[in-house]
Write a structure and sequence with these properties.
By secondary structure, this protein is α+β, with helices and mostly antiparallel strands. It has four domains: 162 residues, Threonyl-trna Synthetase, Chain A, domain 2 (Threonyl-tRNA Synthetase, Chain A, domain 2), CATH 3.30.980.10; 231 residues, Bira Bifunctional Protein, Domain 2 (BirA Bifunctional Protein, domain 2), CATH 3.30.930.10; 39 residues, no CATH class; 91 residues, 3-Layer(aba) Sandwich (Rossmann fold), CATH 3.40.50. Helices cover 35% and strands 27% of the residues. It has 18 helices and 27 strands. The strands form seven sheets. Strands 10-14-15-22-19-18-16-17 form an eight-stranded mixed sheet. It has a five-stranded mixed sheet with strand order 24-23-25-26-27, with helices on both faces. A four-stranded antiparallel sheet has the order 1-2-7-6. Helix 1 packs across helix 2. It is globular. The structure holds zinc ion (2 copies). The site of one zinc ion has 5 residues, from loops.
């Protein structure tokens, strides 16, 4: 339908600008575009006329007629259309050449198309931008006209609203407006800086994350940021993952005639370090399971084109953990890990969670029985939690099955966050073992898992999910005290001190501005609570509470307000 809309738009443009040279017009996720070459430079001022011509064509309910032709016939029909003729020449010999005609406009096209233009519900032109023919800057610059199309005006309006809403929530825009983070050229692409307000949120996330992990029986570890080439050779990263790693650092070690150059790599993953901790001693089956977690900052060499604000970065902190356990423990461990992952994700307001289970590919390492047991344990954990899941048969990594957890944000957009990944490769490569009940050495199961993915990407998603209006427990500034005049400044400072003692994130707006301006500022910065204090409030020892969620709450004592905050912190 959207591709048919592209034809209709091209027909409309041909009508209005007879000299136009056409290239191609594919559909996109929620719309379509068409590339034109013509003397007139299109601008949004031209859109109403083109929109009207499109509407007329849709209303006429014109049929799309398909016709198979010979190359010569096609070439004759497309005479005077240089791009079309080149596209015609691209069609491999032996493949049929088809034309679609609709309302007197004929286009070289493989199809398929809707039966008539009446099936195109509604169309809206969105933008025009320059685009090189075939994406090559040595070619002529064409004009790419973008449109959206949907089955009805209502559906199109809803899609347009979603796009507007997504723009409003864009974490790059909000990150700047709310002073949460920045990425700058001087430091390098894909390297994020957390500003004080963003860092407040990160600390709240980390505090919550650590507390929950300790409660769930995890221990914390910390590991270095760089390691010798030998480590990454043993782990296999230099063999399979080198393209995604930053290049090596040559470090001279030893002195004089003993000096030698050692190669170091900055870590793309934390696993080899956790394994080194494991290897410092011997374990018996009674010591297992071990659950070691680390907010580990890693660096990966992402290509220029794929970076997007915080969603794709080169330096990021994984909320990583590795579980080492016996075959007898694996079912319980996986079950507990899935339950734990869901609890963590739900705390951030993500309730729509689905899973993808990826199973054994053709080429794989590890014993088939272990693959079976691991896959079964993942699947039964999903069933026990009643999580909807799809199975990607054979789609697993060569070293173990995994589940990916996907959430939907407030706009219904899906994001992949957590992963629970078995590994039959690293325990083998690093020769990990424990002493079993039989007194013999056995290989432990190893599971990698990250629940939020990376803190940077997760933060980007959270900003958009909450549109910057973070819940009280995450808000960088939970309370702002607004003295009406300088006369209440001292009283306001006293309130600030008392709230700070209660670990409330609070500031005072001491600017010499009118109250209305202070309130607007706090609203723009999405502060959950404003405490307005005037002369009478100060005398009575109360505060006038304005809550972001519930509006004006009237005057109350600081103790009563604290009760409200405490209740809101659990939401
Ligand atoms: Zn077509
Ligand atoms: Zn790992």
């Amino acid at each position: 339908m959207r591709h048919s809309a592209a034809h209709v738009m091209a027909a409309a443009v041909c009508k209005l600008y007879p000299d136009v040279k056409l290239d191609i017009g594919p559909s996109t996720e929620d719309g379509f575009y068409y590339d034109f070459d013509m003397a007139h430079r299109l601008s949004p001022e031209d859109f109403p006329a083109i929109d009207a011509a499109i509407k007329a064509l849709i209303k006429a309910g014109l049929p799309f007629e398909r016709r198979e032709v010979t190359r010569d016939e096609a070439a004759a029909l497309l005479a005077g259309q240089p791009y079309k003729l080149e596209r015609l020449a691209d069609i491999p010999a032996g493949e049929a050449v088809t034309l679609y005609t609709c309302g007197g406009f004929t286009d070289l096209c493989r199809g398929p198309h809707v039966a008539t233009t009446a099936e195109i519900g509604a169309v809206k032109l969105m933008a025009v931008a320059g685009s090189y023919y075939r994406g090559d800057e040595n070619n002529p610059m064409l004009q790419r006209l973008y449109g959206m199309a949907d089955v009805s005006q209502e559906a199109l309006d809803a899609a347009l609203t979603r796009i507007e809403e997504a723009k409003r929530r864009d974490h790059r825009k909000l990150g700047k407006e709310l002073e949460l983070f920045s990425i700058c050229e001087e430091v390098g692409p894909g390297l994020a800086h957390w500003h004080p307000k963003g860092a407040r949120i990160r600390v709240a996330i980390e505090d919550f994350w650590r507390r929950e992990h300790f409660r769930a029986g995890y221990e914390m570890v910390f590991s270095p940021h760089v390691g010798r080439a030998k480590l990454w050779e043993t782990s296999g990263h230099l063999g399979f993952y080198r393209e995604s790693m930053f290049p090596c650092m040559n470090v001279t070690e030893g002195e004089g005639s003993h000096a030698a150059v050692e190669q170091y790599f900055v870590k793309p993953m934390n696993c080899p370090f956790h394994i080194q901790i494991y290897k410092t001693r011997r374990y018996s089956y009674r010591d297992l399971p071990l659950r070691w977690a680390e907010l580990g900052t890693v660096y990966r060499y992402e290509k220029e084109g794929v970076r997007h604000g915080l969603l794709r970065v080169r330096g990021f902190t994984q909320d990583d953990a590795h579980i080492f356990c016996t075959p007898e423990q694996i079912e319980d461990e996986v079950r507990a890990t899935v339950t734990f992952a869901l609890r963590i994700l739900r705390r951030f307001g993500f309730t729509d969670i689905t899973a993808y289970l990826s199973t054994r590919p053709e080429k794989a390492v590890g014993l088939p029985e272990r693959w079976e047991q691991a896959t079964r344990s993942l699947e039964s954990a999903l069933k026990a939690e009643a999580i909807a899941y799809q199975v990607d048969e054979g789609g697993g990594a060569f070293y173990g099955p995994k589940i990916d957890l996907k959430i939907k944000d407030a706009l219904g957009r899906p994001w992949q966050l957590g992963t629970i990944q078995f590994d039959f490769n690293l325990p083998e490569r690093f020769n990990l073992s424990y002493i079993g009940e039989d007194g013999k050495e056995h290989q432990p199961y190893m599971v990698h898992r990250a629940l939020l993915g990376s803190l940077e990407r997760f933060f980007g998603i959270l900003i958009e999910h909450y549109a910057g209006a973070f819940p009280v427990w995450l808000a960088p500034e939970q309370v702002r005290v607004l003295p009406i005049t300088a006369g209440q400044l001292e009283y306001a400072r006293g309130i600030e001190r008392r709230l700070r003692e209660e670990d409330v994130r609070v500031t005072v707006d001491a600017d010499n501005e009118k109250l209305g301006a202070k309130i607007r500022k706090a609203q723009l910065e999405k502060v959950p609570y404003m405490l307005v204090v005037g002369g009478r409030d100060a005398e009575a020892g109360v505060v006038s509470v304005r809550s972001r969620a519930d509006g004006d709450q009237g005057a109350m004592t600081l103790e009563a307000f604290m009760e409200q905050v405490k209740a809101a912190l659990t939401e």
